Amino acid sequence: MTDPQEAIDAEAAVRTTKRDSRIEERTAGERQDGIPFIGAGPGDPGLLTVTGKQLVEAADLVVHAGSLVNSELLEEYCADAEQVSSIGKDLEELIPLMRDAYENGRTVVRLHSGDPAIYGAALEQMDALEHEGVPTYLVPGVTSAFAASATLRTQLTLNGVSNHVAFTRPQGKTLEPEDDHIGEFVEMGDVTTCVYLGTHAVADTMDRLLADGHDPDTPVTVVYHASWPDEDIVEGTVATIGERLEAAGYRASALVIIGAAAQKTGYERSYLYGDWANRGTNESEADD
Ligand SMILES: C[S@@+](CC[C@H](N)C(=O)[O-])C[C@H]1O[C@@H](n2cnc3c(N)ncnc32)[C@H](O)[C@@H]1O
């Protein structure tokens, strides 16, 4: 097997001169040959897409993202398949596992939590497999920020409150302090900042925001295990959420939402169901 990093570099190099022809030939959602990288959604088996479910049901080998993929989903949809958690496995182990199964005629699916496009590390696996001659494709899923907004019965964009959404993560092993932009998003005022991979670091993140002079009363809402049976919500502010979260005892598997959209107050009715609806023309573009 080619060294995974070399394979990734080689596949990326090809893309600098030539666009993948499948981009024009295929639509997202279309079944293709090869190994599908499927978004399992946030946890509730009902939040897997119809296509994702059909593919999982037909699989002989399901490689999944461990504890963030609800075992209920695996039991319901692929109890008879071989199930392998990717936790603790590097590319050197994962790629031959999937390649060999595929080449031996088995139906292989790769299940990522939420949507593979958000902190999923899917592309490196896809590139390494493609380099080995195994085709791959993506089947999108519901990212946890969307499940968390449904939990809170709100919108991440809310007229008059939040015009933008940032999907981000705090500094740590992967991100250098200078690449942590949470403070900048909060500073903008009309951004709903969705912090992934930051449950364990909420107190530190809030301390940095306070040290940088951000409003201590800025709302912060933490949604633990959105869509799971033990889903929970911890509410607070930049000043209080660290302590409240520590008291609740959650150190992982939560989405941290900074901004007023979670509170659903102070928003304005939208133009879409006001003046725009009444203007009597048939323009095709509108907010939806
Ligand atoms: C490696 S990232 C994967 C994100 C995933 N690809 C997605 O689209 O949701 C894992 C992080 O996603 C968030 N997460 C995943 N599932 C969640 C859930 N059901 N509820 C809240 N947060 C979740 C947590 O912040 C967790 O640390």
UniProtKB/TrEMBL annotation:
One of its GO terms (molecular function) is precorrin-4 C11-methyltransferase activity. One of its GO terms (biological process) is methylation. Residues 17-33 have a biased composition (Basic and acidic residues). Residues 35-241 form the Tetrapyrrole methylase domain. It comes from the Archaea. Keywords: Cobalamin biosynthesis, Methyltransferase, S-adenosyl-L-methionine, Transferase. It holds the Pfam family TP_methylase. Residues 1-33 are annotated as: Disordered. The keyword Methyltransferase applies. Belongs to the precorrin methyltransferase family. This is Precorrin-4/cobalt-precorrin-4 C11-methyltransferase. The lineage of its organism: Archaea, Methanobacteriati, Methanobacteriota, Stenosarchaea group, Halobacteria.
